[in-house]
């Protein structure tokens, strides 16, 4: 954007009395002020009440809004509005200011210009959404409705890839608005949500989900294995956590956590799988017994095939277990049965 926010701001503030100018500078962290100050701190420095500071601030903004300089800079304010409309009429404050600013210092100047202009509205942070700016209340409400539906849809669900999330959000938004939305709009709307977040694997979901905000090594291991899609040795899990999640993960700690967590099943020598993949805990003998108990007598080769799908062990290990006559017997037709 071709907007020199500091230059416009300095010109506008030059039309104010000294006290009003100083208060606005300190409130917004612009001009001679380096940081944004509270009403309380400004009042203390002047020896006046915070309410009096608020009145001076309101006076300064009102005076500037009626100044002819506002009309002079109307093209810049129109450009700001067009940029916000392009983003779906609403955007999270920090990400919007960052996109506008040429430097970190410029963000406060753009915040001041947005506050000064009459066609922008700042909506304060709440339990669902972050601080945000809007230039179209209809689009803002559509954004809120869309995100609420997305929040509900993501409850108790596996995380989504960014492309899948944006596709779902766009379809939901179209149902509410009755029109297509661009990818830039979906990105801006997503930034508004306080409830949705992204994990270190680039997946999206609710921020209070262990898939998105892992709580310790167990959750990190679950994410890694879920993404891998097949059994992993505990040392591989530890290595993947360090490499892909940039988190500390000692091999023995990972092994201990996998043993204690019911989401994981030991399926071989140091090899773990997720229980949700259909694996059941137990020894090889337990697995054989469970298969025969649920499916009835089976030919030996079919039984061994099924066991090896459940456990990554040597063929000899299965055969030795089948020889245990306390638990298994061979029928006259050659099939194996549980006793």
Automatic annotation (TrEMBL):
Domain RNA polymerase sigma-70 region: 12-65
GO biological process per UniProt: DNA-templated transcription initiation
GO molecular function: DNA-binding transcription factor activity
TM spans (from-to): none
InterPro entries: RNA_pol_sigma70, RNA_pol_sigma70_r4, RNA_pol_sigma_r3/r4-like, RNAP_delta_N_dom_sf, Sigma-70_RNA_pol_init_factors, WH-like_DNA-bd_sf
Gene3D superfamilies in alphabetical order: RNA polymerase, subunit delta, N-terminal domain, Winged helix-like DNA-binding domain superfamily/Winged helix DNA-binding domain
PANTHER family: RNA POLYMERASE SIGMA FACTOR RPO (PTHR30603), RNA POLYMERASE SIGMA FACTOR SIGD, CHLOROPLASTIC (PTHR30603:SF47)
Official protein name in the record: RNA polymerase sigma-70 region 4 domain-containing protein
Organism: Candidatus Giovannonibacteria bacterium RIFCSPHIGHO2_02_42_15
């Amino acid at each position: 954007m071709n907007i020199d926010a500091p230059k416009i701001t300095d010109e506008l503030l030059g039309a104010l009395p000294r006290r009003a100018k100083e208060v606005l500078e300190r409130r917004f962290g612009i001009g001679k002020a380096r940081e944004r100050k509270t009403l309380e701190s400004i009042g203390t420095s002047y020896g006046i009440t915070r309410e009096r500071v608020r009145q001076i601030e309101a006076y300064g903004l009102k005076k500037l809004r009626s100044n002819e300089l506002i009309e002079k800079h109307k093209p810049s304010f129109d450009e700001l509005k067009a940029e916000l409309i392009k983003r779906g009429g609403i955007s999270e404050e920090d990400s919007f200011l960052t996109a506008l600013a040429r430097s970190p210092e410029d963000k406060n100047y753009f915040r001041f210009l947005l506050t000064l202009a009459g066609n922008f509205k700042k909506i304060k942070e709440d339990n669902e959404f972050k601080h945000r700016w809007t230039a179209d209340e209809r689009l803002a409400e559509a954004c809120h409705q869309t995100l609420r539906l997305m929040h509900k849809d993501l409850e108790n669900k596996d995380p989504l890839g960014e492309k899948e999330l944006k596709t779902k959000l766009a379809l939901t938004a179209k149902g509410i608005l009755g029109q297509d939305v661009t990818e830039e709009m979906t990105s801006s709307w997503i930034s508004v949500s306080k409830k949705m977040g992204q994990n270190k694997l680039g997946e999206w979901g609710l921020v209070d989900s262990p898939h998105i905000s892992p709580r310790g090594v167990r959750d990190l291991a679950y994410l890694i294995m879920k993404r891998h899609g097949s059994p992993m040795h505990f040392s591989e899990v530890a290595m993947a956590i360090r490499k892909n999640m940039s988190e500390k993960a000692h091999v023995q700690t990972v092994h201990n956590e996998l043993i204690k967590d019911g989401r994981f099943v030991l399926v071989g020598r140091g090899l773990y799988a997720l229980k949700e993949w259909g694996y059941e805990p137990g020894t090889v003998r337990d697995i054989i017994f469970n298969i025969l108990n649920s499916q009835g007598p089976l030919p030996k080769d079919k039984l061994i095939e099924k066991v090896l799908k459940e456990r990554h062990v040597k063929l000899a290990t299965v055969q030795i277990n089948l020889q245990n006559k306390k638990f298994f017997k061979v029928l006259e037709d050659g099939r194996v049965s549980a006793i």
